[in-house]
Amino acid sequence: MKCFQLIFPAACCVCLLSNLGQADDSPLIPRYENTKWGYVTLEGEQRIEQKFDRVTRFKHEVSLAREGEDFFAISRAGKVTRLGTGRQAAVISNRFVIVRKQVPESFEEQIPTRIVDLETGKRYQPPQIQGTVFDWKFAGGELLSAADKEDKWGLYSLDGTQHLATQYDYLGPPNSAHGLCVCMKKIDGRRQMGYIDLDGKEVISPRFDAALEFHEGRAVVARQKKLGYINTSGDLVQPCEFRSARPFSSGIAWVIPDPENYELPWQAVNRSFEPVFEKHYFKPENFQKEWAAVSSASTYEAAEGTGRDSLINRSGKIVFSTDVEEDIVVGSSGYAWVNREQGGVAIFKDGKLWDWSVADEKIPPVVLTVPKVNLK
Question: Which residues contact 218 (CB under 8 A, 6 or more apart)?
Fold first, then answer.
């Protein structure tokens, strides 16, 4: 599962990689049986009947499920909300879910979209503006999206009202915790990135070659193809000297210190940018509280094409490893999902591996899509 990160391969420009966020675990666990998915507790108690064709892991306390062409949202407590029909669905937050009638062929293609408020049951039809695929964020007391209209970016609310107009060439979605948006404009012919607040004030002037969203009061920025970190005042708390860097999660960030060698393993650092432990790992996922999934491979070549087969604690010690190549995803509540190579999924909790899936099914990612063959 990919995390936010900045990487500079040889002879390559800045590349920003992101997805919809880490998946959270829940007291409810999807279980596959007799060709259908339902939900059980870790102890095996059936809470929601086996009737769904596909489900997702929990993200922001919500799991998505599909029955035919109908989408449903499942809360941690087991509340089921029908979202209606569509081709694709994703969780925005623990309150909002987005459903699209079709799968876009490109970023520019505009597809009718519906956003459901799980708290009130209200449905919204957001405006068809470029850049509003899955980047809605809850900030400043409302759901906002950054979008490009007539070559200038701004912030828009669910009813289509323009919350903020800007003259920037790019605007990232607002940060839910800090209310800051990444902005970009050309200065002397070069693209430079900084941050503005929800009122449009330049909190950090554009002066970086690349910049990521703030996490835990720190953001990854780039200068001359090297990476560092800033605080919310724009001060460099770590000079731009890393080859690769990821945002902080649970007080730890992963970095590759040597700016000249991409094939080195990652090192875990604390908020003072000191090593958390001596051991380095390949393909690490961000820490979720006490755990992180990593590859136990000892070389870059061996790690390529393999999954994350080990679970480490905050001391860097491997506490659980699989016997074969499998893929481990850590949630924020002390569970780890193990997608098994031979099929199915298992749950690692408190030193024990709990099997809850059968046959050759795996719990899919956090975006759910209806195959075209199922459309009428």
Answer: 229, 230, 231, 237, 247, 248, 253, 271
